[in-house]
Amino acid sequence: MPPDATETQRYRLSSLTSKGALARLAGIGAVVAAVAAAFAYVGGWLSPDRLSQAQIIDRFEHLNGVHPGFRRNHAKGVCVAGSFESNGQGMRLSKAAVFEPGRVPVVGRFSLSGGHPFMADGPKDVRALGLSFRPLHGEEWRTAMINIPVFVVKDPKAFYEQLLATRPDPATGKPDPAKLAAFTAAHPEFPAAMKVIAGHPFSSGFADTRYNGLNAFRFVNANGVATPARWSLVPTEPVVPQTPEPAKSEDKNYLFDELMARLARGPLQWHLIVTVGRPGDTTDDATTPWPADREQVDVGTLTVARAETEAPGNCRDINFDPLVLPSGIEPSDDPLLSARSATYSESFTRREGEAQTPSAVAVPIPGKGS
pTM of the full predicted structure? Predict the structure, then answer.
């Protein structure tokens, strides 16, 4: 069995500035393993004689162990509930009911990357937000976002090769530098993506984080006009940059505890910003950012009103499949989309067939203590 994979599943930008070629390679391995854990991006090769979603989830279980009842990735999380207030500006881009003026209920989940449900929170852990928009008279929309601006590889084959290249050596607990070097040489998009990621330092917590949908989609309006689009949630909270080397917290759930303390003072809000692509913009490569001058449309405000311990009826049993889309939002040609959908489904099937373990993050009930 490999050593505890938590360290290799954490996003450590600071390691990119370490001295020496071997140190830099080891740092790259730590980063890419962590970001890979952020989304189970595999698939597109889902034929019986090639790579399957079951094989990929098996790999996550091998690295992290099996924790019955928990997601195989993003195992540690907390449910939230709130609403989305559309301002109607999205209607010129998409006919989806969620963009019609008005408010729709939302169920969501904040989480950290990795398959260890009881791991200690870390300042450089990749943070995620999954959402389910539920219009009363329209189709549901699900999305899963993380706090990095691009992904590290562009196709399922590269992802699978990356998993092997960054697998920890049992003798050292670190990836094999030679394998990392070979992987980097074979995938030139990887160092380019890492440079983009390194230019976007983390914020201090969940509440002041920008969450990005990394893949491109197609928005289709009522006239049948299709437009490439990406989206992000931009916080209204003042962004406090994460210090380069923050002090180690004794509270193993400090990121979640800070989130719940902030919600106790009032709702949190984010603006849903749609970035509008132009003809020729890359839609099949999540490692490539679009030019900074692309139009950005504020289509409404997400309000997170409260946190809830994972339980039947809230986010616990939601699979935040990115291909659960309403009419008016369509997949692009990005091969990672079908991969995410397939592996999310495999993870969901496995955990739903197991006894449901108590959540790693419990939300205190007012008047009853913690």
Answer: 0.85
Residue 365 within a domain: no
Give yes or no for a contact between 353 and 66, defined as CB atoms under 8 angstroms apart. Answer: no
Assess if residue 362 is contained within a domain: no
What single-letter DSSP state applies at residue 119?
P
Of 235, 241, 238, 10, the closest CA to residue 121 belongs to 10
Question: What's residue 246's pLDDT?
Answer: 57
Average pLDDT of the chain, as a whole number: 85
Residue 352: both structure tokens together: 């739903």
Residue-wise pLDDT for 165-193, tens only, equals 877 787 887 888 999 899 999 999 988 99
Catalytic residue flag (residue 74): yes
361 assigned to some structural domain: no
285: domain CATH number is: 2.40.180.10
- Calculate mean pLDDT across residues 226-232: 98
Taking the C-alpha atoms of residue 145 and residue 73, their distance in angstroms, rounded to an integer, is 14
Are 90 and 81 in contact, with CB atoms under 8 Å apart?
A: no
Question: What would the mean pLDDT of 255-273 be, rounded to a whole number?
Answer: 97
**How far apart (Å, rounded) are the C-alpha atoms in residues 342 and 44?**
9
Range name among 145-149, 343-347, 364-368 with the lowest pLDDT average: 364-368
Q: Which of 67, 74, 116, 187 is catalytic?
A: 74
Q: Count up the domains in the chain and report the number.
A: 1
Domain that residue 68 falls in? 7-352
What are the C-alpha distances in Å from 250 to residues 120, 255, 348? 9, 12, 32
Q: Which two tokens stand for residue 195?
A: 């440079």
Q: Which residue has the higher pLDDT, 55 or 313?
A: 313
